[in-house]
What we know:
Layout: H1 4-8, H2 16-31, H3 39-59, H4 62-79, E1 115-117, E2 124-126, E3 140-142, E4 149-151, H5 164-207, H6 211-231, E5 237-244, E6 250-257, E7 260-267, E8 272-275, E9 283-284, E10 294-299, E11 306-311, E12 317-319, E13 327-332, E14 338-343, E15 350-355, E16 362-363, E17 371-376, E18 382-387, E19 394-399, E20 405-407, E21 415-420, E22 426-431, E23 438-443, E24 450-451, E25 459-464, E26 470-475, E27 482-487, E28 494-495, E29 503-508, E30 514-519, E31 526-531, E32 538-539, E33 554-555
Antiparallel strand pairs: 1-2, 3-4, 5-6, 6-7, 7-8, 8-33, 9-10, 10-11, 11-12, 13-14, 14-15, 15-16, 17-18, 18-19, 19-20, 21-22, 22-23, 23-24, 25-26, 26-27, 27-28, 29-30, 30-31, 31-32
Helix pairs in contact: 2-3
Amino acid sequence: MPNYYEILQIQPDAPAPEVEAACEAQYNRWRRLVTHHDPETADKATRALRIIEQIRATLTDPAKRTAYDTTLNLNSTVSGLADPQAQPARPAAPPLPPRPPVTPQVTPPAARLDAWQCPKCHSASPVGTRYCRHCGDEMGRDCPKCGKLIEKTIRFCPECGVEGEAYIEEKRREAEALIIRQQQEARRQAEERVRHEAQEREQWRRKRQTFGYIVLILIIIVAGVIFLHWNIAEPKIIIGAPAWSPDGERISLRVDCQDDLEIYLISANGKRLQNITNHPSFDWAGPWSPDGGVIAFESNRDGNFEIYTLDVNSGELRNLTNHTANDRYPSWSPDGTHITFVSDRDGNSEIYLMNVNGTGLINLTNHPGEDNYLVWSPNNTHLALESERDGNSEIYVMSLNDDVWNNLTSHPATDIYGVWAPDGTHIAFASDRNGNFEIYVMNIDGTGLRNLSNHSGHDMLGNWSPNGAQLLFTSYRDGKSDVYIVNADGSGLHNLSNASGNDEFASWSPDGRQITFVSDRNGHTEVYLMNADGGNLRRLTHFSRRIPWLPAWDDF
């Protein structure tokens, strides 16, 4: 197993600043993998961060480093015992003169080693003081693993070495893994029951040899199918991403029933519902064209994800990308002449631009970093995207005139989901730079940053009102998802949906007078409609009482 110096790739006599720099480099290398989609990779990154902090604590403390170096010399002596058949060892070389002691880094007066510094008033209090004696602000917190009271401003517990957020995330993943195992066991038991029932039916059928019994069994089977179809609860349906048509007459929905994703259209009054894709594949609902006649979406009906367009009036379907790579997340230009999408055809996620007929393909990003989630400015002159080209997720903006991407956020935190204001002067986005995701607004040059949600709970998915005066967002501050609204200057924040279920995916009507959202408040995922002030709530869909895969228009 490599020692600490080999892990950091430095010499054993490296000074303290070089050790600190090497630890920071290794930490940054592993930190961005903690949220990797592969659980094994994420767990490996979490363990690596703990080891790096342990190395940092050992090698930056002169006493601990001396003890560790002594341990290395002892191990080296034991592992180097002479082979009985080897040649006699040469005389040992005279010992080198002792190295001068490493001068420890001078601690600023405000951060005494025998005291804790208040993060608010910067005054010192004795170690182990939970609340500042001067201003009353909280200075200490309990380690989530060992329970030891530690200083609030440090990331890792000096007692057990665990990082608070990483430990909580690890426990969350363990809980999710347990739920998955329980679900798999439930499915296995259900499959076993189905097989057992099938065997019993087969044995029953073989016992009946006469025509009369065969007819009787057929009657029972038909009656049973009809009874089950109309009396047993439908499979769980998941609805997402309601999107209004530009004229405000229809709403597109993504409906997931038994792992079959379809795109539905529903009239704004909830009276007519239609499955417009009706294909046994994943059809992921996309945006409406500016004229409201076509929907762009992604589908894997040809074996991999491609960008398709569907004329909602004639039903004409076109594959625009037709490539073996995965092409996803289409977005219309405001003038309706171009479509952008994300593709991995060059080995990593890049943003591509094409005409609405699939011609004139251009790679807009052309960078080895991961580029995702692009949105057009309302005036059709700029593009904003989410990119990891600088090592973490940031919001970038490019003018179509100069072809240069500018990093607007430039922060080591995760900045995602940029959304243009209707007048094109501001961009709203979600960021965890304060420890949890919140809604921020900035100018299009990155200045004037403001935190609109300002709460310890997670706030995500901002959505501007058509007049740019307010934003909708999904908040988890109450222990579940709710639809919140806030003015563009940060005032007037309140809960619009405020029900016992989970409410999310809020979307403004084109005139800004109504809001749709998805909720499971009645035990089933359905689409609801309310006024912009939260009043006049009514339910648009009733998937729990109908056949969700019916393709034709249906009047409730």
